[in-house]
Amino acid sequence: MAGLTDADAGTDPFALFTAWFEQALAAKLPEPNSFVLSTATAGGAPSARVVLLKGYDERGFCFYTNYDSRKSLELKANPACAVTFHWNELERQIRIEGRAELMPAAESDEYYSVRPRNSQLGAWTSPQSRVIAGREYLDEQLTAWTAAFEGSAPPRPANWGGWRIAPTVIEFWHGRPSRLHDRVRFTRTEGGGWAIDRLAP
User: Fold this and answer.
1) What's the domain count of the chain?
2) What is the pLDDT of residues 174-196, one digit of tens each?
3) Which among 85, 109, 119, 138 could bridge 115 via Cys, Cβ 3.0 to 4.6 Å?
4) What is the rounded distance in angstroms from the CA atom of residue 110 to the CA atom of residue 156?
5) Residue-number span of the structural domain to which 31 is assigned
């Protein structure tokens, strides 16, 4: 696959992200919407995990989770975070740096309403990131919540919803022979536009 030319990079990182993401989907890669979310505590201790992209636009990149989970607690204390998409088969990587913000309740409600019922019940069942006595606890909670919402649509739990990561930096990496890879970085300017740089690999 050809590298990333200046013409291909263009001037809009969201347009380039869309082109690359659609190509990853077309290539039928496993979970092409998965990305590593890196967060840190208020004191700077880092942690990372894989989550799923559930939407994006020029405001940022969205995922959904329990607001009492470790990642959410860290984002509340320190909204600075980083995202990494890696599509090895396409020799591509996208790195995003930015700040996370809670999504409006209406947007979380809309997404939750179209989730599979088992996933809706799972949001009620799991006290994410907390220590539990054993697997039996989850099975018992699922049974209880299934009975509680029998015959009705489970509402969105108040402690479950979306985060949006508003990017300040988006870097596109494309593999090339001899480790002379292409790296194009878009940096948000004070005026709301993007400054573009090419970085050495």
Assistant:
1) 1
2) 999 999 999 999 999 999 999 99
3) 119
4) 9
5) 6-113+159-199
Q: What is the CATH number of the domain that holds 37?
A: 2.30.110.10
Complete DSSP assignment for the chain: -----HHHH-S-HHHHHHHHHHHHHHTT-SSTTEEEEEEE-TT--EEEEEEE--EEETTEEEEEEETTSHHHHHHHH--EEEEEEEEGGGTEEEEEEEEEEEPPHHHHHHHHHTS-HHHHHHHHH--TTS--S-HHHHHHHHHHHHHHTTTSPPPPPTTEEEEEEEEEEEEEEE--GGG--EEEEEEE-TTS-EEEEEE--
pLDDT > 80? residue 128: yes
- The one-letter amino acid code at 69 reads S
Catalytic residue positions, numbered: 179
Q: Is residue 45 part of a domain?
A: yes
Residue 55 is assigned to a structural domain of this protein = yes
* In-domain check, residue 195: yes
**pLDDT tens digit sequence for 25-63:** 999 999 999 999 999 999 999 999 999 999 999 999 999
User: Would you say residue 184 lies in a domain?
Assistant: yes
| 20 to 7, 17, 80, 113, 164: CA distances (angstroms) | 14, 5, 25, 29, 20
Q: Is-above-0.85 flag for pTM?
A: yes
